Amino acid sequence: MTCEQAEPFMESYLDDELDASLRAQVQQHLATCHSCADAHGRQLAFGADIRSQGPYYRAPADLRDRVGAALRKGRAESPGAWRWLAIAAALLLAVSLAWNLSLYATRARGTLVADNILAGHVRSLMGTHLLDVPSSDQHTVKPWFNGKLDYSPDVKDFAAEGFPLIGGRLDYVDGRSVAALVYQRRRHVINLFTWPYGGAANQEQLRRNGYRAAHWNNAGMTYWAVSDLSAAELMQFVNLYRR
Amino acid sequence: VNRPKLALFEQIMLPHLDAAYNLARWLTRNEHDAEDVVQEAYLRAFRFFDGFKGGDGKAWLLAVVRNTSLTWRRREQRTDRVPFDEEMHHTGQEATVEEGLADQAALAGLRDCMEALPAEFRGVLVMRELEEMPYRDIAVVTNLPIGTVMSRLSRARRRLEECIGGRRKATLR
Fold first, then answer.
1. CA nearest to B74, candidates B64, B63, B88, B84
2. ipTM associated with this complex
């Protein structure tokens, strides 16, 4: 496939709307063509921008009850009768916020790294710097880090499982240069940050501003996977990587 | 009220309440109107529920929400003293940059640019990007051929990029 042949399919590829054979052809083209892979990375980042910044408006807490009541009566409800429910919800929210803040304070150190990681993820989606080495080939991405880091990250591809590797990037976290491996799930970007670290093998998940991060340590390395995916899909990715 | 029918309807359609509200909120650009539209849409959907032939309840429900939003919009335009105008709305950009919060400015910028899109583009974009619906389901909701859905989506994205690009330039100036 040439750039001209791939171009009309890029948007459908982005939206995961191509049949398997066309998708494989476009994927192959992206693996070999840096400029198309770059453009694709930008489009992915733009979609992530829309999803993270274009607000998803959730229904107000009392709307479900009002719809239910309206269906039973056969006509629409006015909001007045349900206002106290909204007040109760606001109180509950205040309590849970206070609870979260107290948790936050006790985890200051770990939070600092988490902040770094989330900022790194958001930064990677904002401009044109998602990928330093756009490639779906693990044997291209891994050697690229040679000489740029004092360790060699474990690069794996999960295209067959629906999490294709799309490249890698150097990032800066916790006062050092680290490898960021970039994966894609439909239109979602996953950044996997990894660097040597001699901590215990704990595992945690956290959620902030619509993003989720999963963290674990293994064999002297620490890992942070960040994305706007659902918790289930992020865990699916983590389990694939740890397999 | 037919109880078993209502129970089935609620079981299938209430899980899509957030999606219904989100679409109505984007199409009406107003939270109070969105709530009214959602209630009305659920009442209408229940009335036509016999016509639901199974399959994806979300697309079926959102089609009703979209139609209700469009009816609401036409009614508003008739009765409103000031008819709604895309251009007028577009110029209503508050100077968020002065608050010094780049993130907030970016957020407001993207939201304003999405709200400034013509309704038919906005709806398609919201269903694709925020609801992550496949082209096929968006075609069901909008009652358009898939090819038209694709071209609208593509134009919506291009317009949105232009709008955001324009704002970035204006901010830098």
1. B84
2. 0.80
Best probe of the A interface among B6, B17, B21, by most A CBs < 10 A, is B21
Task: Decide if A79 contacts B50 (C-beta within 8 A).
Answer: no
Strands lying side by side in the sheet with A176-185: A133-134, A165-173, A176-185, A188-196, A221-227, A211-218, A203-208
Output the tens digit of pLDDT for each of chain A's 243 residues: 888 999 889 999 999 899 989 989 998 898 888 888 888 888 888 888 888 777 889 999 899 999 999 999 877 665 555 566 667 777 777 777 776 665 555 455 567 788 888 888 888 887 667 888 888 888 999 999 998 899 999 999 999 899 999 999 999 888 889 999 999 998 889 999 999 987 776 778 888 777 889 999 888 899 999 998 888 899 999 999 998
Chain A positions touching B161 (Cβ under 8 A) are: 46
DSSP state of A178: E
Backbone dihedral region for residue B29 (phi beyond 0: left; psi -120 to 50: alpha; all else: beta): left
Domain residue limits, chain A: 3-53, 107-242
As given in the structure block, the two tokens for residue A199 are 């901590």
Report the top-level CATH class of A107-242.
alpha beta
CB-based contacts of B57: which residues, under 8 Å, 6+ apart? Answer: B12, B13, B15, B16
Interface with A, mutate which of B33, B42, B125 (most A CBs under 10 A): B42
Please tell me if residue A56 touches chain B, with a CB cutoff of 8 Å.
Answer: yes
Question: In chain A, which among 143-202 make CB contacts under 8 A with chain B?
Answer: 186-187
Q: Would you call A79 an interface residue with chain B, using a CB distance cutoff of 8 Å?
A: yes
Distances (CA, A) of A85 to A64, A78, A166, B14: 12, 14, 47, 19
